[in-house]
Amino acid sequence: MKTVVLGVGNPILCDDGVGIHVAKQLKQYINDPDVIIDEALTGGMNLLDQLLGYDKAILIDAVRAKNANHGEVKRFSLNDISSVHSCNPHDVSLVEALKMAEKLGENRIPREIIIIGILLKEMSCEFGEQLSSKIAAAVPKAVDMTLSELEK
Amino acid sequence: MMKTITIDPITRLEGHGKISIFLDAQGDVVNAYLQIPELRGFERFCQGRRAEDMPQITSRICGVCPVAHHFASTKALDNAFNVDPPSAAKKLRELMYCGYIIYDHILHFYYLGGPDFVVGPDAPPAKRNILGVIEKAGLEIGKEVIKHRAYGQKITGILGGKATHPVCGLPGGVSKGLNKDEVKDIETMTKSCIEFAKFSLKLFDDIVLENKDYVDLILSDPYTLKTYNMGLVDKNNKVNFYDGKIRVTDQKGKEHIKFNPQEYYKKIAEHVEEWSYIKFTYLKDIGWNGFNDGKDSGIYRVGPLGRLNAAEGMATPLADKEYKRFFETLGGKAVNSTLAFHWARLIELLYSTERAMELIKDPEIISTKIRNPVGEPGEGIGVVEAARGTLIHHYKLDKNGLVDKVNLIVATTNNAGAINMSVRDAAKGIIKKGKVNDGLLNMVEMAFRAYDPCFACATHTLPGGMPLEIDIYDKNKKSYKRIRQNL
After folding, report:
1. Do the Cβ atoms of A88 and B454 come within 8 Å?
2. Beta bridge mates, A61
3. Quick check: B4 pLDDT over 60?
4. B213-239 residues labelled b (16+ CB within 10 A) or e (exposed)
């Protein structure tokens, strides 16, 4: 079984890039030719392109939720949410992209898509490469959760 | 799922568009504002970094249009290091740029703007998306859309080293040339893209231009704005995405000014409004005259419609034919119909495919002379036409080649004044005597979607979707109604 693990986010937008930080750490722990770890600085259609051809996909991403416990790490299945990661008028959401691919007979869609979400109550709009302390503290938790997801 | 939240500066910064509409005593629209969040601290972030890193850093500003930032930045570095790239390098850059325009314009027409026309502006929101387009146009067409968007992406990837965030641009040239196999691949894909662009224009004809209701909507008052227009042109005043002079034409399509991109700061000024994080650019010689169109207002438009209006044609034969038909059909120059952006976008798609073919067939494209040595670091300005309009990068480097000052004017900033007016006019057309119907959101969205705006690019939200909030206030500026989506 081939699995892709994608850190999603923008590495120059502070906490928004937490997924990328997690993916970088994971590389130290995983040495398995069937597990590909990569970074995705994008959403929607481009993100879909990076998932195709794998049996399972794990996305690690910042998740903004108003009533969230800031810095909590949570596992979601793609079915739990209606729309992922297109806070941008110039793209479709991942869910929309997936639905379309399905409709058009795409047969390389992963059977399982899991999201390891790092919950953020609010997101800074400032440029920077550092994570805030609470979100930095969530990185090891997200690493552990991803590793146990890979063992399933 | 309507609930009330407090509006404070923080929520305005969270990465969503927010529209405030103000009514008078009769319940008609006086004014409307679109607030776009702005990412802060970019200059500070860049200070002290190596200049050569700027094309990679700036391409990360946006997950959607990295190629435009990459090359505006690379060209600013050419200028800052006082180096002119070899002609083969310029051609490679422009070819890659064509790939970007191909996938970006396809994405916008079929996935984002197109649903309004192909599915219909009155269709329920659940249908007004790419799935609705496929349902209406057929699965085969859906497959073609996917295929050709991917081709554009692949062309960009072959030249750029990476599909999404290119690494090829260097001051004085590019890091990577093309081999014969790659040339063959790109030629095959480009050929197919030309046919697809022709097909897309035909589809627009059949579905939109043949439908009187749609044509009336395009030409209707709420979607008309008589501003100046701006875009890069080549030496024959034809549209060019990668290089040339900046040309500005007036409301009748006559040349107003034409200047070297390096002089932008003498021609363009920025106006500040207290309610907006985004500054509004305007023509210095005309001046700021509020959110008004017409000859006395310095507001201008960029992007597909701005470019077509600011030029005198397209540099390739098929696109030029379409260019002429565009102006003949819509009543001559300038075309001031906001919804005509969509048609203009397809004409540009055709141009990019034809231009890509010219470039890939050019014997020089496989040249290995792709970089010239750089000079001493200084100040540099680089301008390209991003898919959504003129994009300006301006850097000052210190004597060690480290970044000292950065100024960026992005396409959506250039369009910000016009987008605000279009939103206001669409709202005026819909809200009468305090009656607000649910179609409002889409009619207003159509107005700004035509510009293909880029807001803050990377903020993640779950659940996602395009977050938008419209607040309507009565004559006493008390909240009257709120419409929200994806928030």
Report:
1. yes
2. A117
3. no
4. ebbebbbeebbbbebbbbbbbeeebbb
- Asked if B45's CB is within 8 angstroms of A12's CB, the reply is yes
Q: How far is B38 from chain A (nearest CA, A)?
A: 7
Determine whether the interchain pair A93/B464 forms a contact, defined as Cβ–Cβ distance below 8 Å. yes
Q: What is the DSSP string of B54-112?
A: HHHHHHTS-SS-HHHHHHHHHHHHHHHTT----HHHHHHHHHHHHHHHHHHHHIIIIII
Cβ–Cβ of A90/B453 closer than 8 Å? yes
Q: What φ, ψ does residue B282 adopt, rounded to 5°?
A: -155, 165
Closest CA to B115 of B146, B136, B139, B138: B136
Q: Please, what is the Cα angle at B34 between B101 and B293, to 5 degrees? A: 80
- Give the Å distances, CA to CA, from B108 to B103, B177, B370: 9, 29, 32
Q: Please give the structure tokens belonging to residue B257.
A: 């000014």
Q: Residue B149 is inside which H or E element, if any?
A: helix B139-160
Which pLDDT does position A86 carry in this prediction?
Answer: 42
Options 3.40.50.1450, 1.20.1600.10, 3.30.300.30, 3.40.50.12780; CATH of A3-151: 3.40.50.1450
Q: How far apart are CA B115 and CA B427, in angstroms?
A: 20
Looking at every residue in chain B, the average pLDDT score rounds to 88
A123 has pLDDT over 60: yes
Q: What pTM did the predictor assign?
A: 0.91
Counting one residue from chain A and one from chain B, the pairs whose CB atoms sit within 8 A come to 165
Residues ≥6 apart with Cβ < 8 Å to B261 = B232, B245, B246, B381, B382, B383, B392
pLDDT at B264 over 90: yes
DSSP state, residue A83: -
Per-residue pLDDT tens over the stretch A16-38 = 889 999 999 999 999 999 999 99
- What is the SS3 assignment for B266? helix
Q: What is the pLDDT of residue A82?
A: 52
Contacts of B234 (CB under 8 A, 6+ apart): B240, B243, B244, B315
CA-nearest residue of chain B to A18? Answer: B460
Report d(CA B441, CA B426) in Å as an integer: 10
Chain A residues near residue B153 by CB distance under 8 angstroms: 46, 49
| Residues of chain A neighbouring B143 (CB-CB closer than 8 A) | 104-105
Interface contact B45-A86, CB threshold 8 A? no
User: Domain boundary at B312, B345, B372, which?
Assistant: B372
Q: For residue B380, is it within any domain? A: no
Residue B308 · residue B347 · CB < 8 Å = yes
Distance in angstroms (rounded) separating the CA atoms of residues B145 and A104: 11
Asked whether this complex has an ipTM greater than 0.95, the answer is no
B215 and B88 fall within a common domain: yes
The answer to whether A86 and B463 have CB atoms below 8 angstroms apart is no
Burial A8-40 (b: 16+ CB within 10 A, else e): bbbbbbbbbbbbbbbbeebeeeeeeeebbbebb
